[in-house]
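Quick illustration, no need to memorize.
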Amino acid sequence: MKTSMRNFFAHKGRMALSAVAVLLSVAFVCGTLVFTDTMSTTFDKLFAATSSDVTVSAKGASDSGETTSDNGRPPVMPAAVVGEVRKAQGVKTAEGTVFSTSVTVVDADKDSLSPSGGGPTIVGSWNGNDARTMKVTSGTAPKNSGQVMVDQDTVDKHHLKLGDEIGVISAIGTHTAKISGVAAFQVTNPGAAIFYLDTKTAQETLVGRTGVFTNVNVTAASGVTDAQLKKNVAAEIGGGYKVQTAKETADANQKDVEGFMNVMKYAMLGFAGIAFLVGIFLIINTFSMLVAQRTREIGLMRAVGSSRGQVNRSVLVEALLLGVFGSVLGVGAGVGLAVGLMKLMGSLGIHLSTSDLTVAWTTPVVGLLLGVVVTVLAAWLPARRAGKVSPMAALRDAGAPADAKAGRVRALLGTVLTGAGAGLLYLAATADKAKEGSAWLGFGVVFSLIGFVVIGPLLAGVVVRVLGALVLRMFGPIGRLAERNALRNPRRTGATGAALMIGLALVACLAVVGSSMVASATDELDKTVGTDFIVQSDNGQLVTPAAVKAMKDTPGLAHVTEYKIAEADYTTPDGKTLKDTDVTAADPTYATDLRTKTVAGKLADAYKPDSMSVHEKFAKAHGIHLGSKIKVAFKDGATANLTVRAITSSDVVIDAGSKYISIATLAKYVPADKMPLDQLVFANAKDGQQDAAYKSLKSAMHDYPQYTVRDQTDYKEAFKDQIGQLLNMIYGLLALAIIVAILGVVNTLALSVVERTREIGLMRAIGLSRRQLRRMIRMESVVIALFGALLGLGLGMGWGATAQKLLALEGLKVLDIPWPTIIAVFIGSAFVGLFAALVPAFRAGRMNVLNAIATE
């Protein structure tokens, strides 16, 4: 223990970067856990505060009270239910409310007031339950149709004031009112924008008629539990309504946000795991070099009686101290990171209060365990190597003993693993089913990655020589010295390059997959989409009838095609019934707007009265052919017997698996007030009027900012931007692993400079200038970085190309290698190498020549 403590503090500077790597990785894990726990706490408090003791909802409402429906109107119940609820035993108060999230709110300039961070826009009636969590800070609550109250956060964000006019756009139409009051949240607002109308106006604006409510908020009398109150209310009003306690409502709301938070949480933890993996190589290199530098010391310890186990444990105790030190700092840094993420979310419109900061006891425990266990495991190999140092090594300046047999075994194992990985990737690329191929791909990635890591030293001997011939030889003797330094210890070079390889392999893989998806989608659009313009909401809102009318009134358009999705139960000719299956209803012009391939019949015939189309796989599975009858029971409508007039190809990307009918057929069996709104709308310009029609259509949609008008070029760019934003986010998370890899290069060079102190002194003594010395170290760093980049980019492109073969089974058939990105990353790696060498090269240049020669 004394020896370990002495060595640890004697070499604390040399271990600093390893500690930073542990700190960063632990901080990312703890920051993720604190951040997601804080979000859960925030939502828990919000849902608990806003839920009444018992809530009665209309039939069709979700458990969380979400009001989005296919026809754009919230599910409602008659106002008489409120009176029935009041009769139930144990009811103190019962109040009917109406609200909807299927709305858009705009200011006087028609700019959207909806949250930019993805939070909901809620318009509802001002009621007693909301008065518990919202405080009117200025003005008054709405009293008539000309007034509206807005939440404080929305007022501050959009610089609104009392008397400003806003418009509420719903499926019913647009209602305008002036701001009469401002209400502030008494609990943390996680990003919603809320607008309050008086009850009558809310009913007319959101539902289209009075005398109905979406919810009844019920308060329990003293001594009555929520569970008992729920039972009493349900008995009084009978079936047909959804009755929930406050806890059930809060749990349902929490479940809605839990899915998003879990995806974010586990994605971030996954990237933290990658950083830990990269950090392992840094720690292995650090302890390997420290052991090599202390060979004489270890040999002397063995000579005076230390056993192999004691030497081994001495190194592991140093690793334990490093892990504890880095992990403790990492836990603290993780809390700071969580606060930073909260501030970032605030700038995106999702407000999280630091007063809700949640640090569960498990968070620091997990951080400490991960940091310590990873560090000790990474140090085990160098510790084991230290234990093999013989006492006779004290009599010479030899490094840790080289094990030629171990090197041969490593080369053989690496070759086998790499070959296995390549074989698995080949199986994935040639698979007939995506599910089966995905399993092969996953195993192939793991085996090929491990194989490259194991075989790294062997590859270093080959790749570094090639890179040296191409990059370093032009620098003359200095370049050759840098090349030889990189080749001096292939195991060390391989481990340092492998750390960078992992991050860049993932970058290259994702770049290939993303680029191929964009290229495939673009190719599919060019082949199949015949429409000039596509109008849709980017946040999933349905297209209102008023917006559709504005499009149809636009001059310069040859036709406008509506596109709806309805739900129905199918009874096929083989007697099977398929529940809640989608059916696509469109105008007949959709047959030309989307050039869908058919294997039997003509798609245009599917838009005839009482006709439909099915796709090829569905037809084969249920014995359907042209002329077959399918019983279709529409949701909220009647049952129809439709004749199959066309069978479409299943080998498509756009609208894959769709079954088409005409809107006229849908309207025949579904009442007008139950008809689903359009998912999106297509429009074609008259010949030669594309530019004018484009401008006119954008002008017509000015009053409806929730919808975006795109031509085909815009649509392709939007898809490319979406993929680009996703990749940029992933690259940002991968940056942690790359930063740790850079620290590994810096540490390797810094320790290498210490290791070669006497050699550097001798080179300086025979005439090597400081400038030449610094250049030599920078060139060594560059070639190590390029070695890691070359392996990583090659491996990643192989993974990406294999993944594209699987995507081809889903219709994305174009393989596109983003060479500009690949080349930029490769060149960027050279600059990473230069940057990593700045400090080690500077320190080497400052060495005193005589002291360096005399050093032990």
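The two ends are 25 Å apart (CA to CA).
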